[in-house]
Amino acid sequence: MTQTKVKVKLGENNYGKAEVNLMKINRDSPRHEIRELQVRVGMIGDFDAAHSRGDNSDLIATDTVRNTIYGLAKEGFTSSPEEFGKELVAHFVKTGAKVTGGFMEFTEHLWDRLQVNGQGHDHSFVRQMPKRTGRVESQDGKSFKVTSGIEELYVLKTTESGWEGYLLDERFTTLPETHERVMATFVTAKWEYNEGSVDYDAVWTKVFKQLQETLTDHYSPSLQNTLYLMGEAVLSACPEISRIWFRMPNKHHLQYNLGRFGLENNLEIMHVDPEPYGLMEGWVERA
């Protein structure tokens, strides 16, 4: 039995290349600099014929997209990954007959210099845990919306944190109140910018430092409160940022019961419980 086809049309779509792993080494002096990115480029435009009729006329091959990322990294990529994203999107709008806009997303793996006799080595590095992220998008290849971020910033404080005053008179509540606990979280954050010229590298470094400093400067009655104070501090320190979003899981470090063995445990021996975990998310915005 032949099935009757319904009438359809192509909706929002894009195509490009993902997980392009790029490292650029600046060898202009004996003290080398390195940057390592995983890049995704997506193009938007008039691609209806390719989808509905299989007509690939004037389409840029995704293999070409990959080659372009490496080629333009050689010729450009002299400052931030965000600026490199602008270069890439503008290039594809210019060279692709059917491309009207697009986006570039990146994850940057951070490297620090190996320390030798108290000095950073000229050409030996160690990869760091946090990752820098970002997205650059444009509808015309000329004006851009930029979002920057950070992932896997694992922070912990061994004191000055608690959880009290919550709903206790509830059937399934068993957790006791405490004013002394270990608090740990993986900070994921992304932020948007006000209009104007931005030094993306400088702002990212400032946010990275501010998040760490804010963790230390207050007693935390909840992870929610720390999320809010981090956002407030970042917006106070960075006028370039319009708002910032956080995702902060509560990585539980639980006091292990050593009393069974006649041993006292004064919050010294902890069981790190990976799941399940509390999860806090939210935007902090300028009022």
Describe it:
With 287 residues, this protein is of the alpha+beta class. The chain is built from 5 helices and 10 strands. The strands form 2 sheets. It has an 8-stranded antiparallel sheet, covered by helices on one side. A two-stranded antiparallel sheet has the order 8-9. Helix 2 crosses helix 3 (81-95) and helix 4 (200-216) crosses helix 5 (223-237). The longest helix is centred in the last third of the chain and has 17 residues, at 200-216. 24% of the residues are buried. The mean pLDDT is 96.
Helix content: 10-25%
CATH topology description of the largest domain: Urate Oxidase
**Any idea what the CATH superfamily of the largest domain is called?**
Urate Oxidase
Beta-strand percent range: 35-45%
Taken from the alpha-carbon principal axes, the silhouette is globular
What are the low-pLDDT stretches, counting only 5+ consecutive residues below 50? none
Helix-and-strand structural type: alpha+beta
Quaternary form? single chain
How would you sum up the major sheet? 8 strands, antiparallel
Give the helix/strand layout:
Layout: E1 15-26, E2 33-45, H1 48-52, H2 62-75, H3 81-95, E3 99-116, E4 119-138, E5 145-157, E6 183-193, H4 200-216, H5 223-237, E7 241-249, E8 252-255, E9 270-273, E10 279-285
Antiparallel strand pairs: 1-2, 2-3, 3-4, 4-5, 5-6, 6-7, 7-10, 8-9
Helix pairs in contact: 2-3, 4-5
Binding site for urate: 62-63, 181, 224, 250
Catalytic activity: urate + O2 + H2O = 5-hydroxyisourate + H2O2
InterPro entries: Uricase
